[in-house]
Amino acid sequence: MDTITGKLNEMQKKAVLAGDGPVLILAGAGSGKTRVLTHRLAYLVMEKNVPPQSIMAITFTNKAAREIRTRVARLFGESVWFPWAGTFHSICLKMLKMFPDSLGYRENFVIYDQEDQKTLVKDCLKELNMDSKIFPPRMIVHSISRAKDELIDPEKYKKSNEGDYRLSGVAEVYELYQKKLLEYNAMDFGDLIFNAVTMLENFDKIRGYFQNLFRHILIDEYQDTNLAQYKLANILSRIHENIFVVGDDDQSIYGWRGADIRNILEFEKDYKGCLTIRLEQNYRSTKNILAAANDVIRNNARRKGKTLWSEKGDGSRVQCMTASNDFNEAEKVASIIAEETEKGRKLDEFAVLYRVNAQSLRLEQALKTRNISYKVFGGTSFFQRKEVKDIIAYMKLALNPDDNVQLKRIINMPRRGIGKTTVTRIEEIAASLGSDMYDVAIRAGDYSILRSAENRVKEFTVIIEKLRKAAKELPVDDFYDMVIEASGLVKMYEAEGTVEARSRIGNIRELKSAILSSMEEFPELTGDEMTLEGFLSNIALSTDADEEKEGPYVSIMTLHSAKGLEFPTVFIIGMEEGIFPSYQSITESADRLEEERRLCYVGITRAMDEIYLFNTSERTLYGHTQRNLPSRFLAEISPTRMEYMSSGRGYGYGRKKTTRSTGFGLTRGGKPIDIASLKVEAGGAADVSTGQRVSHRKFGEGVVTSSEGTGEDKMIVVEFEESGTKRLMASYAKLKVLED
DNA sequence: ACGCTTCCAGTTTTT
DNA sequence: CTGGAAGCGT
User: Fold this and answer.
1) What is the three-class DSSP state of A685?
2) Cβ-Cβ contacts under 8 Å for A264 (sequence gap 6 or more)
3) What is the DSSP letter of A54?
4) Looking at strand C, which nucleotides approach a protein CB closer than 7 A?
5) CA of A321 to C1' of B10 (A)
6) Residue A132 CB lies within 7 Å of the nucleic strand C
7) By CB distance 3.0 to 4.6 Å, which of A36, A412, A471, A582 could disulfide with A418?
8) pLDDT confidence band for A36 (50 / 70 / 90)
């Protein structure tokens, strides 16, 4: 028992030892939630004798799943296999593969990523004669994905959007899109969850089987679940009712991807009699950092409410700096890192976080010129690279020739003289026959209209036939060799001879190492040999397979990708209105802005010892230069926690003289001004600004959360403690500004 | 069929 | 400023 609870604090212990029934753990940032989960798993197996195969443990990333596995293994002193530990997607895939024909899918179905989805949507638009200007494929993919997150099928979608021209159009596409997916024997990410839920709902026996199987369900990052995932867990936990969820409503930052913060906010309502435990002791950050984070998140209305505390010392104050422009900002970050490493600190103690990937460019340049090693996380992942996807398309098609999307991708890749006309003809013939394009291609000679292209098409089908045979006979690594050889893709890049082509060949070769390492891992995990099907599903569900980088490096990434990580020193750059919070979140809704604020909270709480917040007075993004006011989040942090560093002007090459001012004014046009007095709009005549506390004679006290327009027309949104959120006209509302 | 030019839009992205 | 897509000329 001591090995399980020995190093836990009281609250953590209570969570780990909780009895049967639903349990909600509200775990603040850095409060040891992974520790609680792993200890809970160990407790269930070691003390309660629950067989590992009857525990479902769900995380959001493969990385988190791996982490939990290795940490549980450490507790056990040996590796115990939890067959149902993984991501929502991998677990659903596993359930679906156990009963593949229940939903009309054939075995060997493949998984579509976003790019495949977009391609398929474009095909649907063309077939429906719809204009992709009016119905941008990106937006449609998004709408379809959101619908699936909310368990809305095409029929329901159509019904609930009757009369709306745009959404009815989306419904049309959605319907055809699903039809094609089934024909092509493919599922997208959303389908994995949606179909698993559908399968459980429609088949009593299957449902009963899983409901009995899972005596305990544990879910990490519960604040990021969507409705479909909520439903899945809800159905599966109905018999044993042991649902143990861990999350932090203040870290819900994926609403735009369908995550429904309601799931965690209303867990107690949905699971009556649940045990709720708050983990508020933070083991990560200094008091100043936590205070700043608490200051920011306090301004959100939609939250459970929780205040983190720490036994660590105050540490240094939040370092704020206004750079003249983005170039200068990057220079400063780089120079601080250089200075600190000269004092003996390691590069991997630093992370630089930003709102959008496009911001990384300047930073990379600045770090490069100083020879500071760095790694950009996120961005295009290895398996998304064009050349890698092409190879995978060959593999997918060999496994599943029904897949027209992959066929169209590679039929003329490398060039073999099959152009648009031929492809369209094959497509039309296939459509009128009700068969797949591959069937038509292989019989190209039978169709007079294809006669002229027959030889070139045959060249392609011969390759695929060879690969289909090989796919059944060869182990995956040998099969890969054959794909390289038969497709001629590497040969094509070799002929190109450019630097870019060489890097593409490098990536293709890298894919082989990915295969080899999965082949090693696979039998360990499942006891089976890795099949082509297994490999393809594996990589479809993994993103973090990037090549390891040698040596210590500075981590640079978006705020989103930083979730779950920690660093001694964190820089957040671009703390500006319109950047962070993003322009869209300011204009769209209060909810979106609250999510943005949570993102800020996530960012600040990544820091253990030091945090630097940067903004610029001028920034070039997407080719145009803009002047942004400092982020409202800066104004929300108590000045007593901040230290404002101003510096000599200069555009990157000026002297790096840094002067410290005792106050916290922001330097603009040479005059220091108080952050709290900044207006949201440049030049606005209104006298209330976002973040300010105001009082209204009828509504009571509240906080200004957003505003739009200027002068007479200025509208502000105020969240009143008693009366809720109100939209008011600033000039008529007769608000009194409260001093703190 | 293919390559070259022009035009346009452009968050965040655990799967 | 980028990358992707559509359009046009060979």
Assistant:
1) coil
2) A24, A26, A222, A223, A225, A245, A247, A249, A252, A304
3) G
4) 1-2, 5-6
5) 28
6) yes
7) A412
8) very high
